[in-house]
Amino acid sequence: MKILTKIFISISLLISVQSLAQKRPNIIYIVVDDMSPFPMEKEEARETRTFGFCGEQHVLTPFVDQLAKEGIIYKNAYVSSSVCSPSRYTSLTGRYAGRCTGPQFMRMHPEGRMTRVENNTELESNRMNVAKILQKNGYKTGFVGKSHIVENDKLNRKKFKENGFEEYEKTADIKNHEVSKAMAHNHAKWSKMIKERGFDYANAVYGGNLLELHSKSANAHNIEWTTSAALEFITTSSDQKDPFFLYYATTVPHGPEPWRQTKGKYNFGLDADPNITGEGYIEKDYSFMPERGDIKAEVFANDSLRKDQAWLRWFDRSVEAMVKKLKEKGQYENTLIVITSDHGAYHYGKTTLYETGVKIPLTMHWPKGIAPESSFDGLVQNIDFTPTFLDIAGVKIKKQMEIDGKSLAPTFKDNTVKIHDYLYFEIGFARGILAENWKYIAVRYPNTIKDKIAKGGTFKGYHNEEIPEPFYVRNQHLGHHASNSNPLYFEKDQLFNLEDDPKEAQNIFNEHPAKAKELRLILREALLSFEERPFDELTSKVFLQ
């Protein structure tokens, strides 16, 4: 009898655990690469457009827009850093990128020195991230698409062999069997490194940007390839009856821009060979999505749409395929789908703290948890993604997780709740604060650079020209375009009233000393939370307001 009782209790506990697992939602976090949320006039060219749910009238994204309509749209969503690696790091940890302790970051910024946050942050092997935490709490975790957050130093082509990657000539044909074999080996190596950071599944992975495949013929986006991996993960995870978390980082629309034409063709996007992948030349069945020619024809048939932005419908079809698979597997109703961008890029806002760099599109869709036609006007940031995912997964946030953000789950039911009084930003030599409609940006340099400037020294620009002050970030290309497109870029103290001046064209720091003082004090408070990380007078013991 005792044996039967134990068996009954064991079965009951098993059923209870399985029931709990099924009640916890799946999470699919989808991030596009370089997209601002600002709609444009049809004639405006040489810019990446945004989704229809952001108000853009000249693109075709009906499926994503419908998900947004049936979910919640965040109208004031931001990232804390406006370039790839630190933004992704923050999204997957809930920590500001300036708190990174990865080996590359610490070599560049030993304790006691100012940090220069840019593409030098990475998921640490010895600290928690959202995938590791969810994995420990019964979730199956998957990673598909672009990395740029794991051992970035290994992207250096000069150290390929030293780091265990196989080499090939940059101009070699990807159809060559030996080239494809080498790319497959390298892809497997990147996938393994990602799995070591808390992911059960990693496939259709790019170590960095497409250019960092170091193959001229592989320099083309392939949405079908990454979608096929996402579908595989959804299928296998659904069959195992476990809740799952999928990080899906598409490479579009980062350069090479899929909207750019060469010889009348979109050779980096819809006109590329669909068999070109990040693991070599592979012929696969992509019948889960329409043919690329059909996607182009659908967009081209409507004169009100920008033909060069047909790639957005391509991405839209990818999301549609994933949702179709969720429905097939009975997972749709209890899956949170997040669609956003890693940062903005409009008018070269990337690597700045202007709205064009830090503001992002954001929508969340969850039939069981979010009412249709919801919206939220309050300030939210990518520091909030990890605590949100943990919250709805029923994972208690502990102090040792070192999370800076807050859960957005309350906004699912109440659009009047306040999540943040202010947002903190960091990129290179710049830090910023946004409180209500006021933004303060401080540009400061470490003592070595200040001394050089004081002595009349100059710095090398993008074309080796002499410039009086350095760019915020080490990437000369990004710094050059950011500074050329934003006239106030080098000004030490910048204050904007976004309600009156949404384009941040007028620096009113001197005209509003009381507001400047208020935001400087808020920034000081935020900066002092970073131990052993000075930021000129703003962190000094004697602070002159």
Structure, described:
The protein has about 550 residues and is an alpha/beta fold. The chain folds into 2 domains: about 25-95 and about 130-420, Alkaline Phosphatase, subunit A; about 425-525, no CATH class. It has 14 helices and 19 strands. The strands form 5 sheets. An 8-stranded mixed beta sheet has the order 5-4-6-1-9-11-2-12, with helices on both faces. A 4-stranded antiparallel beta sheet has the order 14-15-16-19, with helices on one face. The protein has a 3-stranded mixed beta sheet with strand order 10-3-13. It is globular and about 65 Å long.
Computed CA radius of gyration, to the nearest angstrom: 24 Å
Taking pLDDT < 50 over at least 5 consecutive residues as the criterion, the unreliable ranges are 1-21
Give the name of the CATH architecture of the largest domain. Answer: 3-Layer(aba) Sandwich
The first-level CATH class name of the largest domain: Alpha Beta
